[in-house]
Amino acid sequence: MEGLPFTALGGADEGGHPGPPPAAFALLAADGTLVGWSREAEALLGYPAAQVLGRPAADLLVSPYADRDGSDERRPDQRLRLDGTRSAVVDVRHRSGHTVRVALTLRPLTPASDGDSTGRAPSAVLMATELQGLRWWETRQAMLQGLVTQSPVALTIYGPGARLLWANASSVQELGGDLAASLGRSMTELFPGDVLTTQHLASPEDFVQQILETGEPVIDVHFRGRAPSDPRRERVWSSSYFRLLDGRGEPVGVCEQSVDVTDHYRAQQRLALLAEAGARIGATLDPSGTAAELARIAVPQYADAVLVDVAAEVFEGEEPKPVTAWDLVRVADSDGEPSRVGERVAYVDGSSQAESLAGGRATADDVVAPTRLYVPLIVRGTPLGLVTFVRGEDSEPFDEGDRAVADELASRTAVCIDNARRYRRERTAAFMLQRSLLPRSLPELSAVEAASRYLPADSHLGAGGDWFDVIPLSGARVGLVVGDVVGHGLGAAATMGRLRAMVHTLAELDLAPDELLARLSDQVGRDASDGNAQGPEGSGAVGATCVYGIYDPASRTSTWAAAGHLSPAVVQPHGPVTFLRLPPGPPLGVGRLPYEGAEVELAEGSLVVLFTDGLVEARGQGVDVGLGRLAAVLGEQRGSSSDLLCAQIVAELAPDRVRDDVTLLVVRTRALDARQVAAWELPSDPALVARARAMAAEQLGRWGLDDLAFTTELVVSELVTNAIRHASGPIGLRLIRDRSLICEVSDSQHTSPHARYAGNDEEGGRGLFMVAQLTEHWGTRYMPTGKTIWAEQALPVP
């Protein structure tokens, strides 16, 4: 009975997709003898029908079958029970000798008729399937059923035009629970929203059609929108798409696999927002700018509007004090009313804002669904201000995660505002120190007409260390100096003050420029070794440059020396613009190379321009370009006054300022008229002292200064007598009528005279003491050829 017409239930479908495993069939007689054997049975166990028909089916069993209820019966006759449907898992011998584990089901048939004399009529059908294949198929079927009914992943099938064809239970729930009402509607209609991924995507309809045509899957597309089941809440899904084919291999739709990643997406957005806040908030070192940075970062990623109110004391750099609801100023407002920035803000007692400030903690306008969060800006336990985060009606209320982000944003903003307050305080102090150390006004001198400008750098480091000075010297001469301390802040300003004071002290000793810079450099070096110089961290100073010159209006000569500084520009009357060729010298405190001086004759009306490198240095341009621009301005505006010329130079070379301080000193030289100076050369003869007194008195008469004749004769007598007594060679006598009357006596000696108290028994030694008592100022200056002792008297008031 090999060929009873049994057909396999299994195999693969027309599309090649795996189906259930093929079932093997056999027929049993009432006594358990095999009377039918299918081709599938032969394929499963390897026995052809001729070898098994007529044999007891139990002969093929490795052990008696076990019922699903767990019983394991062993019968001596090895007969199979045919009373009722039975199922079991048994081990069966394969023709090759190995064991095959199968799932077996025995189902009784209608009893044979009484006319069958052979007793071989079919009494039961036996179905068997290889257990492993069956288990795999059943698992697959269970998995598919689970995806349809239980999976949390939403599965949706869209056809042409991105219209809904089918959805699993999870997707139906997203659709509002009514699949029938959603069938045939487009993806855009069902889930309106935005694509968040960076890849370029067309409309949903074109997108689905593209996948249907190409078969190329698209993975992890992020959509933001609102589901029909909860239209008030904005959500984010991660979706992947692939094409579905029917049994003939024809596309029937596109399957969308979507997972709600709203919480994960928001967590990423919050982390990204905090990272951006850490990088951007506080970059301006300005309280208002910091508040504006917070508003720009938070809107619209986190809130629809942000208001920031800060205590007024913060803008003055003062230490934070306990604030009240009436101490605040609006510094940022992204709520569409920027005109309110700068206004006073008053919060009513008992309001959420006032409670937040008083309690030092965040509060909300609604406990259940807050749309406004009030978060205090707290530093060291003291509120500096208040931040208000606002969400509109179309946005979701703030949750606990949003509150944590608000606290973190406010905390970072508070620290940055406090840093800005500290910076403003230090910057203000540095500028005040610097301004107090710089000349408030330039002296009125006969030697020069002077004007100056100082422009602080537009830098977060604060005040710099540039300085300038015009120093009156003996003999109607003037000292001109411009210097630059490297660095910014209080350290640079303090260093500048020390250097300026030292230059003044050394200049009053009438030192030549090269010697003055040498002594100044030694002092800077000692300060550095003693730790008085600030390092590059923060706002300190690490070095300084300087140029110093002395101009004598009587001889119209000038002497210059530079310590690592740019040379002054000089414009002689009717001459070209030039830059002094000064011997190069190291910056102050650097190295032990000597400084050299250079002498330049300056005609009356010459322009001398001293400046720091901030004037001629520009981003992307060399110093030579700046020097050329300066020369062009001087050439065009040489006839302007010193003050007007200063303004024109700044407007042309430093209109906006800048990366570094700019210091500019412009002087126009003057010369003493020949009628203001009287000079004589006397031989070293004591007999000529009386003649010197007479010539001085005669000159004072011509000047109309007879009231000063007695004092001047006494001064001339003492100074000439000392020169004759202690020096050799000719003696120079010079009277200068300037803003005061100056008497100078020069000789060839370098000995240092000094005034002293003479004893009662001493006949001499009182000359310089008398000179010091009779004149306002006196001193000594040294030259390569000797020294000059000078004394100065005030002119009578007309």
Kindly list the characteristics that best describe this protein.
798 residues; alpha+beta; six-stranded antiparallel beta sheet
SSE map:
Blueprint: E1 24-28, E2 34-37, H1 39-45, H2 49-52, E3 66-67, E4 86-93, E5 99-108, E6 124-130, H3 131-149, E7 154-159, E8 163-167, H4 169-174, H5 179-182, H6 187-190, E9 193-195, H7 204-214, E10 218-227, E11 230-245, E12 251-260, H8 262-280, H9 287-298, E13 305-311, H10 312-315, E14 328-333, E15 344-345, H11 352-359, E16 363-364, E17 372-379, E18 382-390, H12 400-437, E19 448-455, E20 464-472, E21 478-488, H13 490-508, H14 513-529, E22 541-552, E23 557-563, E24 569-571, E25 577-579, E26 598-601, E27 607-611, H15 623-636, H16 642-653, E28 662-669, E29 677-682, H17 689-703, H18 709-726, E30 731-737, E31 740-747, H19 767-774, E32 777-783, E33 786-794
Antiparallel strand pairs: 1-2, 1-6, 3-4, 4-5, 5-6, 7-8, 7-12, 9-10, 10-11, 11-12, 13-14, 13-18, 14-15, 16-17, 17-18, 19-28, 20-21, 21-22, 22-23, 23-26, 24-25, 24-27, 27-28, 29-30, 30-31, 31-33, 32-33
Helix pairs in contact: 8-9, 8-12, 9-12, 12-13, 13-14, 15-16, 17-18, 18-19
